[in-house]
Amino acid sequence: MGAIFEQLNTILWNIWHYPDFMDFLDILLLAIFIYQMIIHVRNTRVSQTLKGIVILLFASWLSGVLEMRSIHALLTWIINAGPVMLVVLFQSEIRRILEELGNFDTGNFSDGQSSDNVIDEMTLAVMNMSRRHVGALIVIENGIRLNDVIATGTHVDGLISQPLIENIFEPKTPLHDGAMIVRGDRVIAAACLLRLSDTTGVGRDLGTRHRAGIGMSEVSDATVLIVSEETGAVSLAEGGNLERYLDEQAVRNVLHRVYGDGAGSQRMLPLLQFGKRGQKRDDEQSSNPEN
Q: With respect to CATH, is domain 115-261+270-287 assigned 3.40.1700.10?
């Protein structure tokens, strides 16, 4: 623990006494990186873990000052083993970050139809299934490619339309059980298998469909729309979080956020892109507090 503080003191001393242009550039890039990482992990279980790490570091420092040798030795051992423990606990989140860093595509929109038409067709299909209590699990691919998930289902590759979506999820049809993967303005696959979320905070009234939607949003940047077969309620899963009881306007707002700004015609750095999506989601929620 003392070595960590010694290194921090050395860094601060060098910054104070020998600053040059590259030092300022280094600090600026580090600040941008930290800011983007905070945006990326906020409101997820990673953010709670980071708070725990800060408390653990403070407790280790305090036990050293108070000369509580046994507790200080235990905390020091935990801190030294921390990197390995974090990799094991958050392997899915680390994979997600690395995939976003390596993916510069923000969408795949063909010339088949406009984004407004896609939004209208998907909204109409979702609300019709909600009124009829038809269960549905729609995964909209964003920056991270979901080829491994697509491989578990049946290839469709058809333009998005209300009849196509409703027909896929019609009960007792071959493709109704599983997730539908959407890429741009096309339905790529149906009846896909998703990993269930292992989050303990999920309500007991939520079934497999909702847990699969949350699990998909935990390991990718996908936007997942879920229609409950029991209640007909529409839910949204993003970033490991679940927002329930969306009405028609809320569904349109979500789809406008996904397909807006040229429906994937822009390209930007993935972490900046993720931050922009998060900011749009926060603005949308603040303007619709009833949702």
A: yes
